[in-house]
Design a protein that fits this description.
Elements: H1 2-11, E1 13-16, H2 22-38, E2 44-45, E3 51-54, H3 57-60, H4 74-81, E4 85-95, E5 104-105, E6 128-133, E7 143-146, E8 168-170, E9 177-181, E10 186-190, E11 197-206, H5 228-233, H6 239-247
Antiparallel strand pairs: 1-9, 2-3, 3-4, 4-11, 5-10, 6-9, 6-11, 7-8, 7-10
């Protein structure tokens, strides 16, 4: 883990094979297939080269609970974020096959540091994201891509300040996870391909910091009756989850 953390500190991302087991990947994909039929209204077409997203899949799919606090990644996540790490967001994304369409790589950051000084943040990371591949990803498919090191400094520079040829288009079999600093420039690398790409995305913050997003409703089963560490992980709900906790005790 020491070498993994060193790589993350320098580059702002880390690829971890076998973060999910074959059985877990199969169970999650079956849950997605079921939810697409039973709850199609929850799946939103984002209009970006066939990107479809569901930010509330946890409500109907307990099979995905393992992606919120994956045992295989918790030591790394805790080391990067500290003991006050907490849940921020969960979503599932589907990128449709694109056999004859355009290619693109939309570089962006998901978070900035606002008033938090980079020197105060371990690994320069205010918010941590994890992407799980649910399908095999290689040079013939869409990939998740990063510009290494673009958040690993005291200042966040604009995209024009970086060399795009340094981009890493990350590959791996289903079950692979990618941890990255949410301030790192990253993109969905859309290719001409006959393959669908499926991913789960989570974001983590700190209980001592402001929430990152107000999208995901987290169901009570994630923390009720669980150990102290799990309850602390969900102890700073976003406003939409807090409203439901208060109104529907």
């Amino acid at each position: 883990m020491k070498e993994q953390l060193k790589f993350f500190k320098e580059n702002g991302y880390l690829v971890v094979p076998n973060a999910l087991s074959v059985e877990e990947v199969q169970s999650i994909n079956e849950a997605i297939d079921r939810d697409l039929v039973e709850n199609p209204v929850m799946w939103i077409d984002r209009g970006q080269s066939g990107r479809c997203q569901n930010v509330h899949a946890l409500l109907a799919c307990p099979e995905m609970d393992v992606t919120m606090r994956p045992p295989t990644l918790l030591p790394l996540m805790n080391a990067i974020m500290g003991e006050d790490i907490c849940a921020e967001e969960h979503s599932v994304m589907l990128r449709a096959p694109n056999p004859d369409g355009d290619t693109e790589c939309r570089w962006h950051r998901d978070a900035n540091r606002e008033n938090r000084a980079a020197a105060e943040l371990p690994y320069y990371t205010r918010y941590l994201s994890v992407v799980f591949y649910l399908t095999d990803v290689d040079d013939t498919t869409h990939t998740f891509s990063v510009l290494p090191g673009t958040a690993q400094s005291t200042e966040l520079f604009p995209l024009e300040a970086y060399d795009l040829s340094a981009a890493q288009h990350l590959v791996g079999p289903a079950g692979t996870a990618i941890l990255f600093n949410a301030s790192t420039f990253h993109a969905g690398n859309v290719r001409q391909t006959s393959s669908e790409r499926r991913t789960v995305h989570i974001y983590c913050g700190r209980t001592t910091d402001r929430y990152l997003s107000n999208h995901t409703i987290f169901p009570r089963r994630l923390w009720e009756g669980k150990d102290d560490a799990t309850q602390n992980y969900y102890s700073r709900p976003n406003p939409i989850t807090q409203l439901l906790i208060e109104r529907f005790p």
